Amino acid sequence: MTTRFILIQPSHAGNVGAAARAMKVMGFDDLVLVKPRWDDVLERDETIERASGAVDVLQKARAVETLEEALEGITHLCATVMTARDFGPPTRTPREHLEPLAPRGESVAFLFGSERYGMRNEDVYRCHVALQIPTDPDYGSLNLAAAIQVVAYEWRQCLGGFGAARPPATPAADAQAVAGLLAHWEQALVEIGFLDPKAPKKLMPRLNQLFNRAQPTPEEIHILRGVAKAMGEAAKKAKP
């Protein structure tokens, strides 16, 4: 299964570098340029600078003369368009089209037109779908790298994604620790005059439920008990 990003007649070196960066952060590295403006675009300083570390994608990329060469080995073609084409393939959002496509294991190419005039009708017509990124109706202009980033993200999510990086979870304190915290707080609340031990009403059960919902960690239990201790000491100092 191949995922290829094809840039048709790219005219700005910086956009090629930014495209490589957008692909790399989503785990893709198959980039093909069709008749780029610059023969040496993959080695130009601006390209490398805008790639921001995705030099391996540029080194693997290739430039070809025709779209037919770029499509070798590809079985499913996705054009990217701002407006639907009459007599062209169906126009769908990336997510709508790509979710059912992912399990089929096809070799997919995403085609992006020139920055100056987009994709030609004849290139769109040969594709299986025209992908249209939902944007504000009053301003739908995405630059090339931004469009690639959105499509690459949507396709990666359909392929299973990477998952968000999260810090290791800290286990919640056990019930005994929470009970000790409640007892300490009850004592402190009495000492500062907030809780009347003769008429406690539902304060402590409600605090118990609050702490159960919060699921404090052992470190947080330690902090809260320090607060209770400080309240008790302040109450003692305040007494005549």
Question: What would you note in describing this structure?
Answer:
The chain is of the alpha/beta class and 240 residues long. The chain folds into two domains: 3-158, SPOUT methyltransferase, trefoil knot domain (Alpha/beta knot); 175-238, Helicase, Ruva Protein, domain 3 (Orthogonal Bundle), CATH 1.10.8. It has ten helices and seven strands. It has helices at 13-25, 45-51, 55-60, 67-70, 94-101, 121-125, 144-158, 175-191, 203-214, 218-238; strands at 3-8, 30-34, 62-64, 76-80, 91-92, 108-112, 129-131. It has a seven-stranded parallel beta sheet. Strand 1, helix 1 and strand 2 (30-34) form a beta-alpha-beta unit. The chain is elongated, with a radius of gyration of 30 Å. The termini are far apart. The mean pLDDT is 90. It is found in: Cytoplasm. It catalyses: cytidine(32) in tRNA + S-adenosyl-L-methionine = 2'-O-methylcytidine(32) in tRNA + S-adenosyl-L-homocysteine + H(+); uridine(32) in tRNA + S-adenosyl-L-methionine = 2'-O-methyluridine(32) in tRNA + S-adenosyl-L-homocysteine + H(+). InterPro entries: Alpha/beta_knot_MTases, RNA_MeTrfase_TrmJ/LasT, SpoU_MeTrfase, tRNA_m1G_MTases_N. One of its GO terms (biological process) is tRNA nucleoside ribose methylation. Keywords: Cytoplasm, Methyltransferase, S-adenosyl-L-methionine, Transferase, tRNA processing.
